[in-house]
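Hello forum,

I keep getting stuck at the same step: I have a sequence, I want structure tokens, and every attempt I make locally crashes halfway through. Rather than fight my setup again tonight, could one of you with a working pipeline run this one for me? It's a single chain of 580 residues.
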Amino acid sequence: MSLALYGIGVSKGIAIGNVYIISHEPLEISEYSLSEENLGEEVARFESALAVASEQLRHIRDSVIQNDRTVDIAGFIDAHLLMLEDGLLTQAPIDLIYEHQCNAEWALKMQCDNLVQRFEAIDDPYLNARKEDVKHVVTRIQRILRGSPDPSFDFADANLANTIILADDLSPADTLLMQHNGIIAFATEYGGVTSHTAILARSLGIPAIVGLRRARPYIQPNEIVIVDGTRGVILADPDQRTLSNYKRQQKEDQSYRLGLIKTKSVPTKTLNGTPISLQVNIEFPEDAAAVERVGGQGIGLYRTEFLFMNRREPPDEEEHLEAYKQVIQALKGKPVTIRTLDLGADKQVVDSRYHEGSVVTNPALGLRAVRLCLKEQQLFIPQLRAILRASALGKVRLMVPMVCELSEILQVKKILAEIQMELRQKSLDFDPNMPFGVMVEVPAMAICTDLILPYVDFLSIGTNDLIQYTLAIDRNDEAVNYLYNPSHPAVLRLIKMCIEAANKANKPISMCGEMASDTYYVRLLLGLGLRSFSVNPESYLEIKHIINDSNTNGLKYLTKKILETNSQDDIAELLEAMNA
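Reply #2:
Ran it on my machine without issues. Output:
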């Protein structure tokens, strides 16, 4: 009898094969005291473990980087290597060893707990999920300190070809090495949609499920299982009828995926000939390779928060410039939209010093993004200088998040004008006509779009926050996140209002929020008049296929009906009809 276990599908597709179960026993970390004369030896032991961890990760990266397809995704391991050079994981535990006269394992655990707690306070799902990277790196160091074998090297010795991995959790290094050795899918008991392991699975095209919770006791080693990454279900011991049905679906899905690859080389335009701009969202410089992989028209959102995370001091101008230069060169003349820092009360730098002495009762409404940047200009000005200098290297656009009134725009433009004057005096190149835009994330901004447009060159709708603020719900609060609804009439009316105002002013408007990457809403957005999308690279080809298979003229009637409907059930029915 088939057993169905449900989790979160993070990478689409169907895989059928024998399961290989990995059981990582949780590390029990104990504290013990050391005499003062032994502290130096303990620090040396910790530093040796750091060096071994770095060597292990480099070995894994080098063993898979020979395959050209993995060059761009080796950046996931590089991110962990950078953490092994960061003072928050290298120097801080040493300070704790001396302060508490304790063993290295305990000092590292204390620092890990501290970092994880800070990441958990971050509202943004992507940045919140970086706590998993901290845990993965720390676990690797702890295993070395404890003398435990590196499970990654066990994977290399195992025969994993055409198997499906079931584990408590997997690091990006584990996932990359196992895929290199032939796994066809994986399922984990923990993890989330925005974890690096999930993102890597989507990049590699491996069906994957996370968050299964206590699945391993119900599945036997080497048992035949089906992983349905689209529906987020793993089926153990399937009967012949179920197996045949999924094999048929698997062939259909593979055929569909091959068809998507063919869309890479064709123009992005609707059936009735309307051209659509389709760009890519990226998180790290290494992600720029994904633009080429999917045939993207450029980068519509380059998030820069990674430069500020896991560090004690903010990045300087040259570090900013180097990161932007790397992306611009990879794009080979295609446009790059760089979003300025979007950190603050809800997305803090790990070593945040900007809220000391204040109690933040509602961080999502607090000092964040452009508000923080205008208050703490020592963070902002080096970034603006670097973006201006980067504009001399290619087609760069600057975009400011979380704007809610004109005075913020004028303040940023005043700072930019002052920086331009300084750059001229130093004979440093920049594009004086670099487009300046803002994000529509606050309902006040959406309502007053027509008043703001004369002062900007373009707009981009950030639906993640716009929906959250419009509906007064925290999308990460499990008690209320069921109310997070992109198709709520208020949200749709605000989006339509923005698009109509931009069109009337003849100013470009795009959407870079998650709603743009959701295949369920593509036709609705086209019906609302959206003609420029910026989406996750994993969704790009499927979004393009839907656009190319849509007729904007035929969408007008159903879109009008949806805008006039206040019943969510009726809206869902209309959306189903639109997507049929």
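The mean pLDDT is 88. If your local run keeps crashing, start a new thread with the error log.
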